[in-house]
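Supplementary notes for students who missed Thursday's class. We covered one full example, reproduced here. Read the sequence, then the structure, then the short commentary at the end.
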Amino acid sequence: MPDFGKVAVLSGGISSEREVSLKGGERILSALQRQGVDAHFFDPAERKLTDLGEFDRVFIALHGNHGEDGTIQGFLEQMRIPYTGSGVLASALGMDKWRSKLLWRSIGLAVPDFVLLEPNSDFERIGDQLGFPLFVKPAREGSSIGISVAKKTEDILKAYELAAKYDSLILAERAVLGGEYTVAIIGEEALPSIRIETTTGFYDYEAKYLRDDTIYHCPSGLSEERERNLRFSALEAFRALGGRGWGRIDFLMDEAGNIFLLEANTVPGMTDHSLVPMAARAAGISYERLVLRVLELAALG
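Structure (token representation):
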């Protein structure tokens, strides 16, 4: 095993996803320590970031603002400490659902129709344009926080007000309801896709972290050709953002079987409900080997 030196597992932080980050960070820390890595828990909400100067490498397990959006990545670049996951630009783009969709659409990748919402938006016109149901979401939040389904014009304002509690950039997006899929990426490899089946209408925070009746199909049941195309699309979308190391790309399928890119995740969850460890298991990769591989891919620039 490589000598990683002293490793900080960055977990917790100050975003709305703090609790999820703490759970994942604890599992990562334990898995690294069991394998003899000199790993230490580091919560930037409780310690000065300059204390990271004592570490040789950083495993980023932070989610949301200041952890997944390029902020901590930029700090670590300045400190010249190698870190896991994508760099500054890819992290910022991956966190921004609006700009990532603009980029993907510009290179010919399919995304659901969407518009930005403002307080004075004509919600009736937007409903006519996108059709119902539609999703209203903060553009720069994760874990499905602040997302609502609008089934009629009157719902859009209420959904906008909820999303605006988390972000100033609000997205309305046509609902694509034929199935939810995700593809994990480790290095240059796309792992087996996962099909997500929920009882909550869509893969919201409750379905992700709190419920036990969410069903994960891995392998997803796609034909060999569709599976190959989905994995290729995931790699294409990730590379377009400039992603590196590891990540996850989420997709939606419509009733006709057409696939649409939903969003990127440049710091995927690592809890006992998380999807990347699930896909890794399907590929014959243990949780312990997974975290070591991610750590091996830590880099600068």
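Commentary. The first helix runs from residue 18 to 34. The longest strand covers residues 179-186. If anything here is unclear, bring it to office hours.
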